[in-house]
Amino acid sequence: MASCSGCGPGYRSPLDAMKGPREQIVYLPCIYRNTDVLKPDYLATVDVDPSSPTYCQVIHRLPMPNLRDELHHSGWNACSSCFGDATKKRNRLILPSLISSRVYVVDVGTDPRQPRLHKMVEPTELYWKCGLANPHTTHCLGSGQIMISCMGDPNGNGKGGFVLLDGETFEVVGNWEHPGEAAPFGYDFWYQPRHNVMISTEWGAPRALADGFNPAHVKQGQYGSALHVWDWTSHRRLQTLELGEEGAIPLEIRFLHDPDATEGYVGCALQGTVFRFYKTPKGDWAAERVIKVPSKKVEGWMLPDMPSLITDILISLDDRFLYFSNWLHGDIRQYDITDRRNPRLVGQVFLGGSLVSDGPVRVLEDPENQPQPPPRVIKGKRIRGSPQMLQLSLDGRRLYVTTSLYSGWDKQFYPDMIQEGSVMMQVDVDTLSGGLSLNESFLVDFGKEPDGPALAHELRYPGGDCTSDIWL
């Protein structure tokens, strides 16, 4: 590892990162696809410094050159995996478009408060060079290359492959996986080089999920339910961990941050479950369910049973707490994972969702016996939609939350959010014994954007965060 201290981007270790400076700005993509606004998606820069005169405001907007891209997740050209390399800088944000399959490279180094477009990779590059489309998760590699997981082929069928970009020119180099070895579906991935492993997850076939969720598509096999274990060095797919019905639609995957760790967690949307995956004494990998959020029997909704729909999860940098959002039920939960196999619920907060007490849905039966939550109003704005993307401050004390999942599903489940825009909220975290409470004085209202209400998605700090940095 590096003999110098802090010569490359990021931090020497996850615990060093926890001592990093407080976040002052965040970047997040804002989406207009599937809304009433015919404008390009854009990258918003938001001021989150409480001492700043522009606190809680969008201070810059970088529109993309095209319409209906569906910006979604973002990643870096360099992160803590390049910590030992003084030639590397974390100065480019990679913005793949989930639907158009374009990849934008944004210069955030020249002026972090006013990002500018650096390069655009056209979808044909992904189609012709890799046979892939619908790019999702970006991670930088210690080699200097950038890897992006994809969800489909150019025809909208499921295909879980990986595109490599050159870290200097951002040209498409080719596929990471070997020919014919792509997984049936793709979505997220995380690698752990000390154990020579990468694990990827599955959402569904892009053509099935593009315009909304149809439960019949699950029965037709158009959604995934497996984890794929890859050899990090040889790029071979070694194992498929079939999670079954309980593990249907495994989305965000998080290894523990400790690079020596041989375990982590994945949130499975459809049945509201979290699985722990781990290396066995034999040296292969296995998974076990460790959390289940029960569905509620309801009336006034599309189905008689409403799942919680776990859509985002993250782990604090000290590997002590796991957080996830239940996008249909409307709550965020915090678990103490000190005992890795037995997570303990220590915090919960409701922020909107489909179960609000004055809404059309009535809960008939709830295994957890929770009252239907009242609607949330922050600074006079009623929260439409539900907690979705999460980002934790480096020190673990502030959890930032946005409410949009994906425009096609937003439109189906939370049409009010399409009309009124999404929001960004902040939840205060008790890092001693656990506990979550809404910061009532923090709100970024994307319903008031100059071109009309926008859907804000995943959050990134310029200096890195606990969902984009990987340590070697």
Automatic annotation (TrEMBL):
Location in the cell: Nucleus; Cytoplasm, Cytosol; Membrane
Choose one Gene Ontology CC annotation of this protein and give it.
cytosol
What does the record give as the reaction this protein catalyses?
methanethiol + O2 + H2O = hydrogen sulfide + formaldehyde + H2O2 + H(+)
GO terms in the biological process aspect are:
protein transport
Q: In which pathway does it act?
A: Organosulfur degradation
| GO terms assigned for molecular function | methanethiol oxidase activity; selenium binding
The answer to whether the entry has keyword Protein transport is yes
Q: What is this protein called?
A: Methanethiol oxidase
